[in-house]
């Protein structure tokens, strides 16, 4: 029983449904995009971008000549997004090319990401042989520089997946090329590489696409202003380079597997390149370990420096508190002395001030203590009060004819009962009927 006949079986369908539930594929951004490129020895190349299941079925149904190569390009909508292909289209690609179920493990590595920690997750290479058909798949991860309009230059972890199915009997090759971004430079390099394969005999040992890895680090030699912000920045740098450890280990394992599986057909040049790449990965891994050790030491140094700074600050605060306490004790002693002195001298000072303000007068002859209160009233206010009194009497139909000796003189009244002061006589006429002259000096009354 061949692999094609097993497609559609209950076990195959169960594995496919589990893969679909991982939400590795759409629906996401439409239109979907699948690029199919055919390369043969006759130097003919045909490339087509397919966006629906009907055109994809038509293209995949076209027969492939012997010793030819068919490359199918799939990519994610963006670095952390889903594969930009529908479930029906991906199922048609797997079924039409009789791919093994293990290809789903490679496809699941391109599922959506939710946090930076997932960038360190790497898959393992695998191979399967079924008669004259041999399948081989692997993935590579690498840092890629991009420019953000708000942040500027930044780095992102990208990955590229390769699935290769080779039929030694017919010489037909099917390559599934997976990219994490439609604008990734690795995608352009991969297409250029496959274009160069036209006209040559294609075997499984030829289809290799190894991405160069480069690591950028922040220089920690500058003077640091230690604080909580410094520790946060160091942790951020550590989180950025930690995923590279598993990535390098996975890349080294993939290179070793590729050399072992293709040792029979691998040319001397490719074998040497494979060995050089392994040495490069080992060197990068050593550099990574050195950077992690240095970063860890710097973080410990920053943490200890921050602790010393906080201890010094706590000591200064304690010394200042002690000085303030001593000053407060001295101030309390001074205030206590001032309070006692105030209690002693305040009563006598109050009595002396009270009698010194001339509120009281003492008659030594009669031994009498006389007091008076003086209230200042302005002439303007006195005139207004007198005017209001006259208006009140006028409104009540009272008439008060006053006989004044001289015109324009002011009316003056004086009362004296105790000290017998002389007063002027006042003539009053009430209701215009009777007139009475009162002489306060003689005590006489006369009627007219």
UniProtKB/TrEMBL annotation:
Write down what this protein is called. Answer: Uncharacterized protein
Q: Which Gene3D superfamilies match?
A: Magnesium transport protein CorA, transmembrane region
Query: Which UniProt keywords are given for this protein, alphabetically ordered?
Result: Membrane, Transmembrane, Transmembrane helix
Membrane topology is: Multi-pass membrane protein
Keyword Transmembrane tagged: yes
Q: What InterPro entries does this protein's entry cite?
A: CorA_TM1_TM2
Native source species:
Coleophoma crateriformis
Protein localization: Membrane
Answer yes or no on keyword Membrane: yes
GO cellular component terms, A-Z: membrane
